[in-house]
């Protein structure tokens, strides 16, 4: 598909695997739109019921490639008001490349081994769940190269873990180890190594994929609304959401499968209409 990752879909599970271990899976500028388009296609298609993002090699990802900042390319031209206005649009487009994980109607699970550094932590923070190996560590690397992190990690981490710890990471650039990340709620589980990490994450993905994709998508919409709004507004949205997605046939199948001790059979979500 591209030079940065491979994407496979089987049994309702999409697996996007970063595959530049010789470069510590760093993210060059072309990575971002390719990643965005791949996730958006999964959202639009409806066949995938859950997405697992993993990696290859020693480290999950060392973040944005440093040569991105070298040479003062078009993205870094800030010498005039017009250039700064264009910079803002360019940065918004980069942000959307990870926003797509949050807005996707399928849950996204992230499996992190080794370093999850800089832009890689922006990516992981935008996922629904994170799992890691015992050797994993997380780092807001941007402060170490003289800039504030700008692709979502400063906005998302305070909703995942204690704000004081987020500030410590953001201000110091120090590494957060796997055990501490579990204590703080950044990750759901710590596994001994990369192999057991992927096995565990895939097992969770299979459990999610077996549920009603309609109910799962609705649950993600409700959870995101509750995260970003007050309780009253979130409950009001829930009344509208439930009236839109409540499906007695889906419930009947789930109950019959449970009573019959068999796997339920649910149709995939409809594709998003083209041209919209």
Summary, kept brief:
This protein is of the alpha/beta class and 276 residues long. The protein is 45% helix and 14% strand. The radius of gyration is 20 Å and the shape is globular.
How would you characterize the overall build of this protein?
By secondary structure, the chain is an alpha/beta fold. It has 2 domains: 5-209, 2-enoyl-CoA Hydratase, Chain A, domain 1 (Alpha-Beta Complex); 213-259. 45% of the residues lie in helices and 14% in strands. It has 10 helices and 9 strands. The strands form 2 sheets. The chain has a 6-stranded mixed beta sheet, with helices on both faces. It has a 3-stranded mixed beta sheet with strand order 5-7-8. Helix 1 runs parallel beside helix 2 (81-103) and helix 8 (213-228) packs antiparallel against helix 9. It is globular, with a radius of gyration of 20 Å. The protein starts with a strand and ends in a 17-residue tail after the last helix.
CATH superfamily of the largest domain: 2-enoyl-CoA Hydratase, Chain A, domain 1
Radius of gyration, in angstroms, nearest whole number: 20 Å
Structure summary, number of beta strands: 9
Question: What count of structural domains?
Answer: 2
CATH class of the largest domain: Alpha Beta
Unreliable sequence segments: none
What do we call the CATH topology of the largest domain? 2-enoyl-CoA Hydratase, Chain A, domain 1
Order of helices and strands: EEHEHEEHEEHHEHEHHHH
Give the helix proportion (percent range).
Answer: 40-55%
Number of helices: 10
Strand order of the largest sheet: 1-2-3-4-6-9
Report the end-to-end length measured between terminal Cα atoms. 24 Å
CATH architecture of the largest domain: Alpha-Beta Complex
Strand pairing plus helix content: what structural class? alpha/beta
- Main beta-sheet strand count, sense and barrel state: 6 strands, mixed
Mean pLDDT: 95
Task: Give the overall silhouette.
Answer: globular
């Amino acid at each position: 598909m591209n030079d940065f990752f491979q994407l496979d879909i089987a049994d309702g599970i999409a697996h996007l695997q970063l595959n530049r271990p010789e470069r510590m899976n760093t993210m060059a500028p072309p990575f971002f739109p390719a990643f965005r388009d791949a996730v958006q296609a999964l959202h639009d298609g409806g066949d995938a019921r859950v997405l697992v993002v993993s990696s290859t090699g020693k480290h999950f990802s060392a973040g944005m490639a440093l040569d991105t900042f070298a040479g003062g390319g078009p993205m870094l031209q800030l010498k005039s008001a017009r250039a700064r206005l264009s910079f803002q649009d360019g940065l918004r487009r980069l942000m959307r490349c990870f926003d797509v994980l949050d807005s996707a109607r399928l849950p996204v699970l992230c499996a992190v081994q080794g370093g999850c550094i800089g832009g890689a932590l922006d990516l992981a923070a935008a996922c629904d769940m994170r799992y890691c190996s015992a050797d994993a560590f997380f780092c807001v690397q941007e402060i170490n190269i003289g800039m504030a992190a700008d692709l979502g990690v400063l906005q998302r981490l305070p909703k995942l873990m204690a704000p004081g710890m987020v500030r410590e990471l953001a201000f110091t650039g120090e590494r957060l180890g796997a055990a501490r990340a579990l204590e703080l709620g950044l990750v759901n589980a710590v596994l001994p190594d990369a192999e057991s990490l992927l096995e565990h994450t895939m097992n969770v993905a299979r459990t999610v994929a077996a549920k009603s994709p309609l109910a799962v998508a609705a649950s993600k919409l409700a959870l995101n609304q509750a995260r970003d709004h007050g309780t009253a507004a979130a409950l009001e949205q829930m009344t509208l959401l439930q009236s839109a997605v409540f499906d007695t046939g889906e419930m009947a199948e789930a109950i019959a499968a449970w009573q019959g001790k068999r796997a339920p059979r649910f149709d995939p979500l409809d594709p998003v209409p083209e041209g919209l």
